[in-house]
Design brief:
Length: 402
């Protein structure tokens, strides 16, 4: 297979996991993805409430949304690759415990810096979502891998988009501490369900932790498919972040003068795009991931063109939906192609792909803020479209080489 990287010390195929992935188990894993990753975003609509609780440190409130993202990055790099070395079930349950402990500590945090530390632990635990996606792919028949990844991504992206809406409502009603406590209770419930139904897995490789981490670089060097998928997804998620980092600012100004609650409702609109991820998976299984990626990139570029030409609430709502569909379908196709490279390296392959996505998103957030500052909404839509065009260039170059 093109771009398949060498994987040291693979476990023989006869020790591979054979349990069938039932519809119920797949749905449970998809919901767990959303529940886990939602914890990264609960804090964002509650920043004002948190700042009022620690007035002496209110100037440091910016560390709060950064802390869980830092923890998630650490979890991606240090914990997710262990899915190839250890029993994934045990590793996922350990991360559930870390997630719940971090949320309990956040709910009881006596200081702003204590809250930030608790949210770093929360983010590292939330990275269990990226353990579940390759695990579901491992449990599925190869011919259904795209459909399975699509459903998993539906759960994950829905969790991201709805977290802000739920936290904003509950935080306003009962305070930010109760939201974190509710998140802890939800995480414990998730852990109990996963402990009951999630199967054990055999390690995919037998190497030291150090050699496992070094192999991440080897995978990048040896696999053009992985590099291409990572660059495309980073570009598209960068455009996604350009939009979401500036939407509330645009709505708060003229002619709308709308609050953050309305911006949160756009998350509900965009979450409708999650329903297209399973369809994208089936298309990837039938026509190949490259065809799905091509359509996805065009959707992202088209979404920003629409929002530039029609910057009304209706146009923004349609654009947000189309943008989410494009980013999600590309992620499904790219993960499907990457997971097919090596069954013994799926966790590490996913680490590289999602780390690239994460870096692309961070770059997009910065680019969006700069575009808004210097060129307003027109600059934002142009910046988002440029990220989409970067993804198209990577895809077109790969097609020419093929």
């Amino acid at each position: 297979m093109e771009g398949t990287a060498a994987v040291p010390d693979q476990i023989p195929p006869d020790r591979a996991l054979t349990r069938r992935l039932t519809r119920g188990l797949l749905l449970m894993m998809a919901v767990s993805c959303g529940v886990a990753v939602a914890n990264l975003y609960y804090n964002q609509p509650m920043l004002g409430l948190i700042a009022r609780s620690f007035p002496a440190r209110a100037g440091w409130i910016g560390i709060i949304p950064t802390a869980p993202q830092l923890g998630y990055a650490l979890g991606l790099f240090l914990l997710v690759p262990l899915g190839d070395l250890l029993d994934r079930r045990r590793l996922i349950l350990c991360q559930c415990a870390l997630l719940a402990a971090g949320l309990v500590a956040a709910a009881a945090a006596p200081s702003l810096f204590g809250l930030a530390a608790a949210l770093v632990a929360t983010g590292a635990g939330a990275a269990l979502a990226q353990q579940l996606v390759p695990f579901a792919a491992e449990l599925s028949p190869p011919a259904e891998a795209g459909r399975v990844v699509g459903l998993m991504m539906s759960g994950l992206i829905t969790g991201i988009l709805l977290a802000r809406t739920m936290a904003g409502a509950l935080g306003a009603l009962a305070g930010w501490r109760l939201m974190f406590a509710a998140g802890a209770a939800l995480s414990v419930a998730m852990a109990m369900v996963l402990a009951r139904f999630l199967p054990s897995s055999q390690p995919a490789v037998q190497v030291s932790w150090r050699r496992l981490m070094v192999s991440l670089g080897a995978l990048v060097v040896e696999s053009p498919v992985l590099r291409r998928a990572t660059l495309i997804q980073a570009s598209l998620f960068g455009g996604f972040s350009v939009f979401w980092a500036t939407l509330a600012l645009y709505l708060a100004g003229p002619p709308y003068h709308l609050g953050s609650a309305v911006a949160g409702l756009f998350g509900v609109v965009a979450a409708g795009g999650a329903t297209t991820a399973p369809l994208a998976g089936r298309m990837a299984d039938r026509h190949g991931p490259a065809a799905v990626v091509r359509v996805s990139v065009l959707l992202v570029i088209g979404a920003f063109a629409l929002m530039a030409a029609w910057p009304s609430l209706i146009g923004l709502g349609i654009g947000a939906f189309v943008l989410d569909v494009g980013v999600q379908t590309a992620m499904v196709a790219n993960q499907t192609s990457v997971f097919a490279l090596s069954a013994a390296a799926r966790s590490r392959l996913n680490t590289v792909l999602v780390t690239g996505l994460f870096l692309g998103g961070a770059t997009g957030s910065v680019a969006g803020a700069l575009a808004w500052r210097f060129a307003g909404w027109n600059g934002v839509t142009a910046a988002g479209a440029l990220f989409g065009c970067a993804g198209m260039l990577v895809h077109a170059r790969a097609r020419r080489r093929a």
